[in-house]
Amino acid sequence: MSTYTTDRASPFTRAVVSSMRKLYPEALADQSWDNTGLLLEAPFDPIRRQMNSVLLTIDLTKAVADEAIERKDCVVVAYHPIIFRGLKSLTLSDYQQQSLLRLALEGISVYSPHTAVDAAPGGIADWLADIVTGHLPSPEPSTHTALQGTSQDTIPEEGEGAEESGTQTPSEQPAEEKKKPQRPRPKMQRTYSKPTYPSHRPVDTSKTDLDTCSVDHTRSVISPVTGVEGFEGAGMGRLITFKESQPLTHLVERIAHGVGSPKGFPLAIPQGKQVEDIQIRSVGVSAGSGHSVLKGVEADLLFTGELSHHEALAATEKGQCVITLFHSNSERGFLSSVLKDKLTETLKEEWERVRKAEAEAENLTDEWEDAIKDDDVLVECSVRDRDPYGVVILESSKQEGKPMR
Fold first, then answer.
1. Peptide bond preceding 139: is omega within 30 degrees of 0, i.e. cis?
2. Tens of pLDDT along the chain (405 residues)?
């Protein structure tokens, strides 16, 4: 007869939690505000036992919860905590609480590592630093000095500069595209792309030709975290100093290759300067909302997920450049490029240990024995997780506005 065990999670869930804590101890997190750890511990349900699988995501949205339920995952590792503050109730009227209740009903637990991953050596901060210090095939994308004496009010003609931007001019577009009928629009006829997002796939250096962490540099932690045994050198943010100055255009290319080739991302430079002429000697790096880590950092370039308007303006007024990626795009590639393989390796060892320990226990139910006999381990990245913001491209249209100077 089946026994519904309501007082403990599945043994595989415990193995996942202990694996994450080995890789990214909760003591590394910024506990002054963050909420890391096991946020939802679903009881073991032998009647509909989940697969021995983990779904990695940055945000636990309704779409990701649906995905985990459809896949019958055992644990969702959500980088961002879905619970930040104390809850006075759990109801279906709140969309986030609805996802938690549905996952609990299905026996799926939720773990969030957040800033513990930011601070850990080899974590997200180092992953971003490795991208910035990577190298593309020699010669890297060429830089040039913009023509002197051109007016800032000059607007390039259609197709001008298309070779550099990778955009086709009307004369270069296939005939079938030029003949494609357009839906009538008031006043102007323009074509906008669908919102585009960085690729979910891990960075394959054999395809992108990005050799990470290959440019000579020194690297230091901006805000150290101490007192966690075995994690010396941990802390928030990284400050990179190149042995030789790097063209900003090279860094832009490296970042684009490293984070999934987005169609575009924000770049802020001081007024009066031109992108092609800027040389970067130092870079301050922080994932997510980087202001709290990067404020006061003296670096030529600040590279982060997002800065507010006033924070970016203050930086450019000081002569700094800023690259942002839309918050979670500075984090998501880490899941497929680094965490998936690291967790898989650690979890296989931890699951074997848990299985052996559980097998020695007395009075095991048949269902519990069945669970620990399953030696499968699978870690996958969500295919539905994405940043709320996509990039919409205005196609086949004359450039409007001033070029960045």
1. yes
2. 445 556 889 999 999 999 999 999 999 999 899 999 999 999 998 877 889 999 999 999 999 999 999 999 999 999 999 998 888 899 999 989 999 999 999 999 999 999 999 999 999 999 999 999 998 765 555 544 444 444 333 334 333 333 333 444 444 444 444 555 655 545 555 676 777 777 766 544 444 567 777 889 999 999 999 999 999 999 999 999 999 999 999 999 999 988 887 788 899 999 999 999 999 999 999 999 999 999 999 999 999 999 999 999 999 999 999 999 999 999 999 999 999 999 999 999 999 999 999 988 888 888 888 889 999 999 999 999 999 988 887 776 555 555 555
Which residue carries 């792309």 as its tokens? 193
